[in-house]
Amino acid sequence: MICGTLILAGSLMALQKPADKAHAAATERVTLRDGSVVLGLVTAVSTGPRGAVELLVRRDWAESHVKTRAGKWSRAIEAGSKLAARQRRERLGTWRGERAASAPADDRIVAWIDQELKRLDDPAVTARTLLMPVHLSRSDVRGLVRHPRRTPGCSSSAGSAVYPRSKRCRWTT
C-alpha cells in the first residue's frame, strides 16, 4: 500500500511543470510607469533629468510578456543586427581566405567557417537575436530592483573565521 502511494506521488510530481523561479532570480526587475514589469540584465543606469536605464532582455520572454514594447524594441535594433551580421560575414570571409591558403583540405576550422557563412546567409537567423538591448528613458521607469552581483567562484554563505567574506568575495551592486 505504501509503495503504491509513493509511486503515485512520485509520478504526479514528475508530471508537474517546473517553477520558473530561476529566471526571475537571475534578473533585475524594472517596473514601468504603466505597471508592466520587464526582466533583464541592467547594463547601465544614468541619473539626472535625462537619465535612462539600459538592459538586455531575452527576446522570447519579451514577446510573451510585453508584446507591444517587444515589437518596438525589435524594430529599433533590426538595422544594427543586419549591419553586425554583414560585418561578421566579411570578417569570416577574409579569415577563410587567409586560412584556406595555408591549411590542409580537410581543415575543421575552414569547414566551420563555411558552415557559419551559410548560416549567416539566412536573413531569419540574422534578424532575430536572442537578446535585445533596451533603452528606457527615466520617464518610462517607475522602479528598479537590482540583485547583487558577485565575483565568479565565490560562495554566497557568510565568511568563516579563516576567510572572511571580504577576503573571499568582491561584492558589487
Structural features:
alpha+beta; 5-stranded antiparallel beta sheet; two-stranded antiparallel ribbon; 7 strands; disordered C terminus
Topology:
Blueprint: H1 2-15, H2 21-25, E1 28-32, E2 37-46, E3 52-58, H3 59-65, H4 67-102, H5 108-120, H6 123-127, E4 131-137, E5 141-145, E6 149-150, H7 165-168, E7 171-172
Antiparallel strand pairs: 1-2, 1-5, 2-3, 3-4, 6-7
Helix pairs in contact: 3-4, 4-5
Structure in words:
With 173 residues, the chain is an alpha+beta fold. The chain has one domain. The chain is built from seven helices and seven strands. The strands form two sheets. It has a five-stranded antiparallel beta sheet with strand order 4-3-2-1-5. Strands 6-7 form a two-stranded antiparallel ribbon. A hairpin with a 5-residue loop joins strand 2 and strand 3. Helix 3 packs antiparallel against helix 4 and helix 4 packs antiparallel against helix 5. The longest helix is centred in the middle third of the chain and has 36 residues. It is elongated.
Briefly note the structural class of the backbone: alpha+beta
Count of extended strands: 7
H/E element string?
Answer: HHEEEHHHHEEEHE
Distance between the termini: 53 Å
Q: Mean pLDDT, rounded to whole units? A: 77
Helix content: 40-55%
Strand order of the largest sheet: 4-3-2-1-5
Sketch the major β-sheet: 5 strands, antiparallel
Low-confidence stretches: 155-173
Query: How does the overall form come out from the CA principal axes?
Result: elongated
Quote the beta fraction.
Answer: 15-25%
Oligomer: single chain
Counted up, domains total 1
Number of helices: 7
Radius of gyration: 24 Å
